[in-house]
């Protein structure tokens, strides 16, 4: 089973969010399950510098949208996964964020940049000149950046026709990001005018990259079962709910997994002390280390809550700002790592100034520090208004830092609420609330602090959370079933 896994980012080469973590962890799990998965990545400088044994394969590609010519290079990731890099310097040789220019705005040619990635992926279906030794059975694209892959295969048989059409899957990691551009770009993107209709690539008067993928792909997946249901509703479907409801039989929700080679307190090199479910002693040292790192009072008995997130309304961080003073008043502490809306950043900075011994804030992102936060906190907050899957709450489970989440998307699927029945039977792993209000968050914080004051119950819940298996083996098997259904 040969699978080309097309993605715009992959950790540690380039990362802006959870897509990079998934792109790093799922292909090795699929290979372990019997697939032959290869990545296709844009040739960003970090990708070209980060892949080992990089060498040119096949012929020059001379008809990419927005680019006269490009090379296809093949190398390996640090995990040993074979990866193609689309080396098109005019499109990808830019520093920093893969989507944003130095002014913080989208690159004006993002449509061409990711149409080229989709064009190259589709090219594997028909042209042995891309790599004479390897041709995929399945093209698996991720998010809007790869949405045109199935469209090209369907609409351009003159360019991508071949002896057999590979199966196509599009995974929606976040439906809020759709890649919409003006209709005048049809020709430049290599799309025929006839496809600009509702039953095609048209999306509210524009060309929709994600819409195209949702319409033309053989199968659709998203990153949790609950999110697969939610995006079929007006509240979460962002205009695509009708199309997705009509394709419900082709839409699967597969919960993301955790890479335990990276996220495991028993061997994490970034944390102050190692620990396991059978010996939680090291977690106390990690808590003291975290309090020191953020300049907080060294109080072992203070319940320490944490946030590692983009600081946006969508992530529900305004609820944390509204609830934080009450939490501090109850004796709690809070650390925050993230960046986002200027107003949110300013709000958290002000909160830290008001409560310097109880609240610590770092604006930005720091991967090693995020590990120290997971290990050192008692309670991990993910109050998102919408969350396709979420990974940080699953990392928190492994570190015995009980997640407090809003019941939506993958947060609902991965965390078992500490209601009386779940506490009694030992299945609880965290805390959930429903309405996205500060009052609901405060109610769950009250429940959490009450349980924290009962150390035996709290530690029993920690141990159960740490032993939950949310690794990639199960999700990889579900994807393998999808792949098998697409290959004759």
Describe the structure.
- By secondary structure, the protein is of the alpha/beta class.
- The chain has 2 domains: 2-257 and 473-486, Glycogen Phosphorylase B (Rossmann fold), CATH 3.40.50.2000; 281-467, Rossmann fold, CATH 3.40.50.
- It is 38% helix and 18% strand.
- It is built from 19 helices and 18 strands.
- It has helices at residues 18-32, 45-50, 89-92, 110-126, 148-155, 157-160, 209-216, 225-230, 241-246, 281-293, 317-329, 342-354, 367-376, 392-398, 409-414, 420-425, 438-452, 455-467, 473-486; strands spanning 2-6, 36-42, 52-61, 70-76, 82-87, 138-142, 167-172, 180-181, 202-203, 206-208, 219-222, 251-253, 304-308, 333-338, 359-363, 379-382, 402-406, 431-433.
- It has a 9-stranded mixed sheet, sandwiched between helices. A 6-stranded parallel sheet has the order 15-14-13-16-17-18, sandwiched between helices. A 3-stranded antiparallel sheet has the order 8-10-9.
- Helix 1 crosses helix 19 and helix 5 (148-155) crosses helix 7.
- The chain is elongated, with a radius of gyration of 23 Å.
- The N and C termini lie close together (11 Å).
- The mean pLDDT is 96.
- Belongs to the glycosyltransferase 1 family. Bacterial/plant glycogen synthase subfamily.
- Residues 298-459 form the Glycosyl transferase family domain.
- GO terms for molecular function: alpha-1,4-glucan glucosyltransferase (ADP-glucose donor) activity; alpha-1,4-glucan glucosyltransferase (UDP-glucose donor) activity.
